[in-house]
Design brief:
It is built from 6 helices and 14 strands. It is an alpha/beta fold. The N and C termini lie far apart (about 40 Å).
Length: about 230
C-alpha cells in the first residue's frame, strides 16, 4: 500500500499534518511517499491507495498550481479512475478555475472543477462546522479568508456553520473517490466513522488506533455542536 503526501513542506498549516501522522500510526506497514514541490507526483505514473494534500498559505497555493498544472490531464484521469484523494483546507481552491484577489486580479487554477474562490484578506471567517455526508455526521472547523462559488458535486450538506460561501449550505467537493473539504480539525481524528469509510475505500480492514476513545470524543463533540443554545462560533 502506498500513500502519497503532496508538498508537505508547504502544505502543512493548521495542524492538519496530524491527519498524516495518524495514518502512519494506523498503517505502519504502508509506504508513505512525501512528494516535494519539485518532484513529479507518484500517482501520475504509479498506483497509490491515497493522495493527501493539506492547507497552505496563499503564496504556496500559486506554487502548487504551477507544480501541478503540467499534470492536469493526468489528475483528471486519476479522479475519473477512482483514485482516492483527500484534500483539506484551502488546498481545494487550487483545483478550481481561479482565485480572485481583492483588487480583481486572478490566480489561474488547475480548472479541474467548475468553482472559483474570492479572497478577502482583511476578514477571516472562523466557525465550527457540522455537516452530513451520506448517513455520516461530520464535525470540524473552518478558518478561511475566501468564499468559494460555482458548481461542483458537493461533499457535505451543512447543518451548522457555513458552506463554500456564507450563503451556501453545501461544502467541499466529492467526485468518485476525490474528496476536498475546507474543514480543518484534523478531520480524520475528529471523525472516526468517516476515517473508517476512507479506510474501506482504500481496502483497509482494521480497527482504528484509539478507536473507542475517538468515538467517545466524537459523540461528545457532536452533542455540543448540535446544541443551538451553546455559542460555539
Amino acid at each position: 500500500m502506498k500513500i502519497e503526501i503532496l508538498y508537505s513542506e508547504i502544505a502543512n498549516l493548521f495542524g492538519d499534518m496530524a491527519n498524516v501522522r495518524y495514518l502512519e500510526k494506523c498503517l505502519p506497514k504502508a509506504e508513505f511517499i512525501y512528494t516535494s514541490i519539485n518532484d513529479k507526483p507518484k500517482f501520475i505514473s504509479e498506483k497509490v491507495s491515497l493522495v493527501y494534500m493539506g492547507p497552505m498559505s496563499e503564496h504556496s497555493q500559486e506554487l502548487v498550481i504551477d507544480a501541478l498544472s503540467k499534470y492536469t490531464n493526468e489528475i483528471k484521469a486519476s479522479i475519473n479512475d477512482g483514485v482516492n484523494f483527500l484534500v483539506t483546507g484551502n488546498a481545494m481552491e487550487v483545483f478550481g478555475k481561479y482565485i480572485e484577489n481583492e483588487d480583481g486580479t486572478k490566480v489561474e487554477g488547475l480548472g479541474i472543477f467548475d468553482i472559483y474562490a474570492k479572497r478577502d484578506m482583511m476578514h477571516r471567517y472562523n466557525s465550527i462546522e457540522l455537516g452530513t455526508f451520506n448517513k455520516l455526521e461530520i464535525v470540524g472547523f473552518k478558518s478561511t479568508f475566501t468564499e468559494v462559488f460555482g458548481n461542483a458535486p458537493k461533499f457535505l450538506k451543512i447543518k451548522r456553520g457555513y458552506g463554500n460561501s456564507k450563503d451556501s449550505d453545501v461544502e467541499g467537493i466529492k467526485k468518485n473517490n476525490f474528496i476536498a473539504t475546507t474543514l480543518l480539525g484534523p478531520i480524520l481524528i475528529l471523525n472516526p466513522y468517516f476515517t473508517k469509510y476512507l479506510f474501506e475505500k482504500m481496502g483497509v480492514k482494521t480497527k482504528l488506533l484509539y478507536e473507542d476513545e475517538m468515538i467517545k470524543a466524537y459523540n461528545k463533540r457532536l452533542e455540543e455542536f448540535k446544541d443551538e443554545k451553546r455559542n460555539l462560533d
